[in-house]
């Protein structure tokens, strides 16, 4: 009788340990999901903030706002506005931008400024080629998309 009671107690203790391990695993998974959710929420909030801060009226002005602080406005050879189309929450306006004879550092600064612009400006396509006159310089062709809410 006493041995049966001990066996029953050990069996319950074993099942409780398994349940505890299972719950600890679930807790770890929930913490991971919470962290991923918080990261995604921060990214969404950043985009939402940019959407509300849009100061530029169009893609050409947005491009000017990106290149002017860098002092590269003279290296922008052409800005060809593309189509404008209506999307779910606003308008998307595209432009083809040609930038010539920039250094690798200037190119990195351009992409950094585009990514951190106070508006939603997206690089849809980028073509980077060496300059013919000086192989250390680069010619960049970008297709940029500017999003503006209604």
Structure explained in plain terms:
With 150 residues, this protein is of the alpha+beta class. It has two domains: 52 residues; 91 residues, Alpha-Beta Plaits, CATH 3.30.70. It has three helices and four strands; from the N terminus they run H-H-E-E-H-E-E. It has a four-stranded antiparallel sheet with strand order 1-2-4-3. Strand 3 and strand 4 form a beta hairpin. The protein starts with a helix and ends with a strand. 13% of the residues are buried. The mean pLDDT is 80.
Give a short synopsis of this structure:
This protein is of the alpha+beta class and 150 residues long. It is 48% helix and 32% strand.
Morphology call:
elongated
- Total tally of structural domains: 2
Distance between the termini: 79 Å
CATH architecture of the largest domain: 2-Layer Sandwich
Defining traits:
Alpha-Beta Plaits; 4 strands; single chain; four-stranded antiparallel sheet; 2 domains; 32% strand; alpha+beta; 150 residues
Reconstruct the topology from this structure.
Elements lengths: L1 H51 L6 H9 L8 E12 L2 E13 L1 H12 L4 E11 L7 E12 L1
Antiparallel strand pairs: 1-2, 2-4, 3-4
């Amino acid at each position: 009788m006493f041995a049966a009671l001990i066996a029953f107690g050990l069996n319950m203790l074993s099942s409780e340990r398994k349940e505890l391990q299972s719950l600890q695993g679930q807790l770890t998974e929930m913490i991971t999901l919470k962290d991923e959710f918080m990261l995604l929420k921060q990214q969404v909030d950043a985009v939402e903030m940019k959407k509300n801060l849009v100061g530029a009226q169009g893609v050409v002005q947005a491009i000017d706002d990106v290149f002017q602080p860098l002092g590269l406005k003279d290296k922008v050879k052409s800005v060809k506005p593309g189509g404008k189309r209506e999307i779910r929450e606003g308008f998307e306006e595209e432009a083809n931008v040609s930038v010539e004879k920039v250094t690798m550092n200037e190119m990195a600064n351009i992409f950094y400024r585009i990514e951190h612009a106070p508006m939603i400006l997206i690089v849809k396509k980028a073509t980077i080629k060496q300059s013919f006159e000086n192989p250390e310089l680069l010619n960049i062709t970008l297709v940029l998309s500017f999003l503006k809410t209604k």
